[in-house]
Specification:
Elements lengths: L2 H27 L6 E3 L2 E5 L4 E4 L2 E4 L2 E8 L2 E9 L2 E6 L10 E3 L2 E3 L6 E3 L4 E3 L8 E2 L1 E3 L3 E5 L2
Antiparallel strand pairs: 1-2, 2-14, 3-4, 5-6, 6-7, 7-12, 8-9, 9-10, 10-11, 13-14
């Protein structure tokens, strides 16, 4: 292989590998749940966090409720065995829909970052995300929208 072809191949591999990995990771990790909306609350089954692959069972870190409020999804993040945080995935800077991954929410428009608790980690956003009160019982998670 000549030098120019080697450099071109190497450059494609350097650029293409991380891109392919991020696409594969994002496809695998995003999971939209089926919910009921009753009396101003979303009801999510706790079993939505369980994923089974073969004989192995594990728990998702988060699930999404698609177009939940004002056309934006809500991310329901599992922080502990029975502790959850529900955040509206609308950037408080200029309203872009946030991306989920790597344990943070990221704004693709201007780069703001938020913790899974909805707190600003990096601007230009200055206000925390809208979060919703949560209650649970043995089977369900209730996200109070009012």
């Amino acid at each position: 292989m000549d030098r120019a072809k080697f450099i071109k191949t190497l450059g494609c591999a350097i650029i293409g590998t991380p891109l392919a990995m991020s696409l594969l990771n994002s496809c695998e990790s995003i999971y939209y749940v089926q919910t009921k909306r009753v009396d101003g609350k979303f009801i999510v089954k706790k079993s939505e966090f369980i994923q089974t692959k073969g004989k192995s069972t594990s728990y998702r870190n988060f699930v999404l409720i698609n177009k939940a409020v004002g056309g934006y999804p809500i991310c329901l993040y599992r922080t502990d065995e029975d502790t959850y945080v529900a955040s509206l995935l609308q950037c408080t800077h200029q309203g872009c829909e946030l991306d989920v991954g790597g344990g943070i929410y990221t704004c693709p428009c201007h780069g703001s970052e938020f913790s899974t608790k909805g707190e600003v980690l990096q601007g230009p956003a200055e206000k925390h995300l809208k979060t919703f009160p949560i209650t649970t019982d043995h089977e369900n998670i209730y996200i109070n929208l009012v």
